[in-house]
Fold:
Amino acid sequence: MSMNEIILYNAPTKALRLIALSSIFVLPGCYSIYLGKSDFLIFLIISFFSLGYIVGFFRLLDRRSQIIINEKGIWDRSLKLDVIPWKYIRYAYAITIYKQDFISLVTAKEILRRKKNYKWTEVLNKRIRVQKINLNFSALNADSQSFNFLILRLIKASQEDRNVIINQFKEK
Structure:
């Protein structure tokens, strides 16, 4: 029997938007160099915003799953952890930071010990009041609020009911 799951992928439209926004800075800079008006600042602008092309094209071509939610727990590619079982997730809340959507997971200490963070990220997390484990929804075509509600329902549900809740969510 295959496991019932919700799989979230990178949104191609958001990758294309990143490429387009990078072009707003890169193309005029290249045109300035073509006209012979080259200085250090123009090279710096082109170099910095060219990174948007790299990230945008990578996200556009990346067809791997980013987040998987199933009856056993949550898996996020960016966390570099195994599946986080539901029994270790205590609470979840959606948060937006500079128009970037996240779901912050309050988890048991057993999971937190496996998640290695740099000291500066721990300071930043405390300052902006997020947890050590955060699901990034900014590059996905998914509403973080509705997924937060789903996660809260799955935390409270029994093992048998999780499959039904996931099916109901998929049918919406």
User: Anything to note?
Assistant: Residues 103 and 118 are 20 Å apart (CA to CA). Residues 72-171 form one domain. The first strand starts at residue 5 and ends at 9.
